[in-house]
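Input (Alpha-ketoacid dehydrogenase subunit beta):
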Amino acid sequence: MSSQNLTIVQAVRDGLYTEMNLDDEVLVMGEDVGKNGGVFRATEGLKDEFGGDRVIDTPLAESGIVGTAIGMAAMGLKPVPEIQFSGFMYPGFDQIVSHMGRFRNRTRGRYTLPMVLRAPYGGGIRAPESHSESKEMFYAHEAGLKVVIPSTPYDTKGLLISAIRDPDPVIFMEPKLIYRAFRGEVPEEDYTVPIGEAAVRREGTDVSVFTFGAMTRPTLEAVENLEEEGIDAEVVDIRTISPLDRETIVESFKKTGRAVVVHEAPKNGGLGAEITATIQEEALLYQEAPVKRVAGYDVPYPLYALEDYYLPSVARVEEGIREAVNF
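Output:
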């Protein structure tokens, strides 16, 4: 299988191109996705390749984008609408939770919605207000939605293809902080990465560190630094927020007895709380220390001057791991 060396945003485009080339029912829509190739150029060149009927520039109206895609999916198409930033999804929230997440149940299985709602999420790029949120748990609370967040180019393409082929709606959140931060080997052919399965990025015995998206990189760096202190940490990339791979979480924790969860979303109500509850319910007798959460703060996302203080840094992750290990 031949491969190419791509960034995450290039892997997004490659995944879209691959599925559009294989399936005429797949189409892309959103603000500036056609002629301009999207605000991050994730759809660059697709309109030239597939035409205006399958790469559709929409008005600036998120509720209309999501609602139109729902209608298309109900009639058998496979739309992949893009919201320019995840903080712009809120005008479409009613469509997402009232229709997108409920359609299969509402029709008692007569209709499914094979659609993928893409949006770059997270901070660190010095963007204005409403451009930097990490609110994935809004959507994880809806039983009819799957929520996916990749952290590598390989996973990005494979998970995106899996999402497009899924008969049910998927929220696909892309970590824009690392859109172009590094490259990775990505097969040129089509392939899938299963939705609902976490990935162990590093084996370890002293503590399990659970993370996802853009926070995977500072977490791995922190773990490498702590090797010099004799701390052997395991790193689990969650990848799918919903459905959550509880089996991998519990298996890792039973091996180490200690856990740290790293995410840039606010601590209150974040994925760290759900992982902690899962550990308490399914592996309490293995626990050697309180679960440590290293997260964003419970405040509105700050602007430029304080952004680096808000996001979990390598130093904060290191300190969280030390606290769990030394308890």
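The CA atoms of residues 206 and 312 lie 21 Å apart.
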